[in-house]
Design goal:
Length: 269
């Protein structure tokens, strides 16, 4: 067996970003051949990927990347909160968001084919599974474009990007979106999913105080109550949580500060 030097182990570790003992094991199995050791580690990674495949990934971290007129959010899922809060895992999510922005990838499947250093993203995730020892999935990639796109990432747990005409206060709306409860479902009333509106109408119509009214009156009462639903769930109609005047809507806040809003995306782990 070839003599495995500490220098060679370090070189392999720098190339694959895996623990020293794992790199030494690979070199021993490959008789000191660095290229063969990398192939050996990749095969081990595929074995680890198969081992952990199918395990639920209820935790994770969100990576945010912003460019000129474009914002990207990447949700990277994992099994445990311990891993989700690891700085290395968070940085990996950020790297994937940066890569999606740089390459123009707009979906998880597309991003998996892009190169991150010497590996495809799919191969890099496989290596992370081997390194960390639990299932990791590239769950979601979301892209938003506009004249100006700003964003906010709250510790990798909740993140929002906002498109608009710009201005120093536009990012405040991203903070609002991340903090709002309930989270906004659409920018304006016209963009609310009709299925959501129909379900809300059915719920309102079944309320005792509505059902007790004459049948001819009920549709008007339901539409009146639906206005409250819109004020709570439509972004432009929500009361701004930060930096606003009392009772000021997001739309009024934007107008007062000289910018308009054209779209937003919110992701939460």
């Amino acid at each position: 067996m070839a003599q495995i030097s500490a220098k060679l182990v370090m070189e392999l570790r720098d190339a694959v970003n895996l623990p020293m003992m794992k790199c030494k094991q690979a070199l021993e199995a490959s008789n000191g051949d660095k290229a063969a050791a990398i192939d050996w580690l990749r095969k081990q990674g595929l074995s680890a990927k198969d081992k952990f495949a199918g395990r639920e990934t209820p935790n994770g971290s969100i990576g945010l990347a912003l460019g000129t007129g474009t914002g990207v959010l990447v949700l990277l899922g994992c099994q445990t909160d311990f891993v989700a809060n690891n700085d290395t895992f968070k940085e990996f999510a950020k790297q994937l968001a940066d890569l999606a922005l740089a390459t123009g990838a707009t979906s998880a499947d597309e991003l998996k084919t892009k190169k991150l250093a010497d590996l495809t993203v799919d191969e890099a995730i496989t290596a992370k599974i081997q390194q960390i020892g639990e299932n990791i999935v590239l769950a979601q990639v979301v892209v938003l474009t506009g004249t100006v796109v700003t964003g906010y990432n709250h510790g990798g747990r909740i993140a929002a990007i906002v498109a608009g005409s710009g201005g120093e206060k536009q990012r405040t709306v991203a903070l609002h979106i991340a903090s709002a409860s309930p989270a906004p479902v659409a920018l304006n009333r016209d963009q609310v999913d009709p299925a959501i509106v129909q379900k809300e109408r059915e719920i309102l119509a079944a309320l005792p105080d509505v059902a007790a009214k004459p049948e001819a009156m009920r549709p008007k009462i339901v539409e009146g109550k639906l206005g409250r639903f819109y004020k709570e769930n439509v972004l432009l109609e929500q009361e701004i949580l930060l930096d606003g005047e009392k009772g000021e809507s997001v739309e009024a806040y934007a107008k007062r500060n000289g910018f308009t809003l054209t779209g937003f995306v919110r992701l939460a782990v």
